[in-house]
Specification:
Blueprint (H helix, E strand, L loop, with lengths): L1 H11 L3 H14 L4 E7 L5 E6 L6 H4 L15 H8 L6 H8 L1 E7 L6 E7 L2 E2 L1 E2 L4 E2 L3 E3 L4 E7 L6 H5 L4 H18 L4 E6 L7 E2 L6 H9 L1 H4 L2 E8 L4 E8 L9 E6 L2 E2 L3 H9 L12 E8 L4 E2 L10 E2 L2 H18 L3
Parallel strand pairs: 1-10, 14-16
Antiparallel strand pairs: 1-2, 2-9, 3-4, 3-9, 4-5, 4-8, 6-7, 10-11, 12-13, 13-16, 14-15, 17-18
Helix pairs in contact: 1-5, 2-7, 7-8, 10-11
The chain binds adenosine-5'-diphosphate and magnesium ion.
Protein name: DNA mismatch repair protein MLH1
Keywords: DNA damage, DNA repair, Nucleus
Organism: Acrasis kona
Length: about 325
């Protein structure tokens, strides 16, 4: 059973960045407005993520890393479905299978924070008594701090595959940048543990375009067109920001959030990128940022084990409608 759990965990958490993405999503789900992430050795040695969200109650701390635990937590099942928009994971369970996890958390109601350590989904065991070590009281503000140490310590082959910490850092910066842009109303900070300088930092801005300016620069931000649209019949809402046809980037950016999750949708990426084929020089790219909210029932998230690739149940209709709307804006601003 242990082996099965580890294999399953390895599917979800393939690299440090997968853990950071899951942890960050949890902070956002918890309604945090301030999130800081620090990491060491490309996230393999340490990841510490701290938020000011609603916290985890003392009672829930016992089981929070257990597999299939979400339904047992103090939140109602359907409330949960709404707040996570159909994306149901087992992130903490998976991470605790492949790393040492410490959680410190305080809810509004509690007098103090509690701290607990986990292995393989369970509270650590006191070797003297063979009993789980209960969460211990500790000073702290409302919110949650999760520390992940020695990722893949028990999967030697996996760990030794990560010699290039710079590459892992690059991936972490990339993903956190995208969440920082998407999360208007949330201040997100990322730094390497040893650095005072930040890799990513957004203030409490109220708009995605402000965040694009902060993260990707003013030069790009002033070239953006935007689109807002709601289709009641197909039950989705879209906000998109994309560069005008006279601008191009060396690097290709297609950033897609569906129901607040950073995901991939190959068909939509291809459709929107192709709009620019006749405009931008060969080998250069537009910048495209899309945030879509759709009824979870109209979304298939089980295309890929990490749930990173999604499709819509009415895929062709939605993709072609979005393509059409973006194409009109792009063509309309050609000069
Ligand atoms: P899921 O997010 O799909 O429920 P996770 O393993 O990511 O699964 O998280 C399990 C549960 O732990 C969450 O549902 C939430 O109740 C709680 N949790 C995790 N991280 C936080 C956090 N930063 N703040 C508050 N609650 C959290
Ligand atoms: Mg989660």
């Amino acid at each position: 059973k242990d082996v099965v759990n580890k294999i399953a965990a390895g599917e979800v958490i393939q690299r440090p960045v997968n853990a950071i993405k899951e942890l960050l999503e949890n902070c956002l789900d918890a309604g945090a407005t301030n999130i800081t992430v620090s990491y060491h050795q490309g996230g393999l040695k340490t990841i510490i993520i701290t938020d000011n969200g609603h916290g985890i109650s003392l009672e829930d701390l016992d089981i929070v890393c257990r597999r299939h635990t979400t339904s047992k937590l103090n939140t109602f099942e359907d409330l949960k479905e709404i707040s996570t928009f159909g994306f149901r994971g087992e992130a903490l369970a998976s991470i605790s299978q492949v790393a040492h996890v410490t959680i410190t958390s305080k809810t509004q109601e509690q007098q103090c924070a509690y701290k607990a350590e986990y292995t393989n989904g369970e509270l650590n065991i006191d070797t003297a008594t063979n009993q789980p070590i209960k969460p211990t009281p500790i000073a702290g503000l409302r919110g949650t701090s999760i520390r992940v140490e020695d990722l893949f310590f028990n999967i030697g082959a996996r760990r030794s595959g990560f010699n290039n910490h710079a590459e892992e850092s690059r991936r972490i910066i990339d993903v956190v940048s995208k969440y920082a842009v998407h999360s208007a109303g949330v201040s997100i900070t990322l730094r390497k543990q040893s650095d005072t300088k930040t890799d990513v930092h957004t203030p409490l801005s109220q708009s995605i375009t402000d965040n694009i300016r902060t993260v990707y620069g003013a030069k790009l931000a002033k070239e953006l067109l935007s689109l807002e649209h709601e289709n009641k019949q197909l039950d989705y809402k879209i906000t998109a920001h994309f560069t005008n046809p006279n601008y191009h980037e060396k690097k290709s950016y297609f950033i897609l959030f569906i129901n607040k999750r950073l995901v991939e949708h190959k068909g939509l990426k291809k459709a929107l990128s192709s709009i620019y084929d006749g405009y931008v020089p060969k080998g250069t790219h537009p910048f495209i940022f899309v945030s879509l909210t759709i009824n979870p029932k109209s979304l298939d998230v089980n295309v890929h084990p990490t749930k990173e690739e999604v499709i819509f149940l009415r895929d062709e209709e939605i993709v072609s409608e979005i393509k059409e709307m973006v194409a009109v804006k792009v063509a309309g601003s050609d000069s």
